[in-house]
Design goal:
The chain is 55% helix and 22% strand. The strands form three sheets. The protein has a three-stranded antiparallel β-sheet with strand order 3-2-5. It has helices at 83-88, 93-108, 114-119, 121-136, 155-224, 230-251, 264-285; strands at 7-10, 14-20, 23-28, 31-34, 41-48, 52-61, 67-78, 141-153. The longest helix is centred in the middle third of the chain and has 70 residues, at 155-224. By secondary structure, the chain is α+β, with helices and mostly antiparallel strands.
Length: 286
């Protein structure tokens, strides 16, 4: 409608390509212009100078024969000083850029293994950007940035990679668990050994204390009661302890049935056995 009245408006961040009788004349900056169509002047088209983005999905395979889909994001814009080239030299800018991306990715990724493809995605993006910048500059376009936003292996490969990762983590967890159990067993064994050592030490000290107590009792009784020998006192002490033991066994509700020979002769035999055992213990201690 604007050209009917010979007035044309060019919006901000846009340029217009002016032709006279079908021949390129000039590039119009944003503003309002008078173009008398009767003199053969007209707007051939408009060109946006805004930053544009093109997402390209390219399927290729890696050096280890794994098919992957590489998603590249291309950010580009037309150059104001080369607007005529950008308008006339290309009929489909996005298809042209996509062809260059396909060519570079399919020439770069097959040289890399799957793991290297993930690790070197910045190098792939740099290769795509360099090739695009060199090619598109002649057509009046600037490549601002190229990003490899995603690398998608085949679903079966992805599942296998996850299983490998999970197995590796389970192996590490099993090793850690086994190491923890080993430490617990070692500490438990050390504690048990220390406990038995202390228990044995306590028993030895207890027996030594009993021997010392009996010796002191025998000496004290022999000095206070004239005419008694150490053997008589020892027999009496042992007999007293024998009856105390019988009393404790009978008073305990949890005691099992114990058969012990009882009688004067049996008491004498028990006393003799205890005395001989204590004397041997005392002799070995000395």
């Amino acid at each position: 409608m604007g050209q009917v009245f010979c007035c044309v408006k060019v919006s901000q961040s846009t340029v217009a390509v002016k032709e006279t009788f079908g021949k390129f004349d000039e590039v119009l900056e944003p503003g309002c212009y008078f173009l008398p169509w009767c003199l053969g002047r007209q707007i051939a088209g408009y060109l946006s100078l805004r930053l544009q983005q093109l997402d390209v999905r390219c399927e290729t395979k890696t050096k280890d024969n794994v098919f992957v889909t590489v998603v590249a994001s291309i950010q580009y814009r037309a150059l104001a000083d080369k607007a005529s080239d950008a308008f006339y030299k290309l009929t489909n800018t996005r298809a042209q850029i996509q062809s260059y991306v396909f060519d570079v990715i399919r020439a770069t990724v097959p040289k890399l293994g799957l793991d290297d493809t993930f690790e070197q995605k910045n190098d792939i993006a740099k290769a795509v950007e360099d090739e695009l910048a060199k090619a598109m500059s002649t057509y009046g376009y600037e490549i601002v940035q190229t990003l490899i936003v995603d690398i998608e292996p085949d679903v079966h490969v992805k599942r296998a990679m996850n299983e490998i990762n999970a197995a590796a983590r389970m192996r590490v967890a099993a090793n850690e668990k086994a190491e923890a159990e080993k430490i617990l067993q070692v500490k438990r064994a050390e504690g048990d050994a220390e406990s038995k050592y202390l228990a044995g030490l306590g028993i030895a000290r207890q027996r030594q204390a009993i021997v010392d107590g009996l010796r002191d009792s025998v000496l004290a009784f022999s000095e206070n009661v004239p005419g008694t020998s150490a053997k008589d006192v020892m027999d009496m002490v042992l007999l007293t302890q024998y009856f105390d033991t019988m009393k404790d066994i009978g008073a305990s509700s949890k005691s099992s049935t114990v058969f012990i020979p009882h009688g004067p002769g049996s008491v004498r035999d028990v006393a003799s056995q205890i005395r001989d055992g204590l004397l041997q213990a005392n002799t070995s201690h000395m």
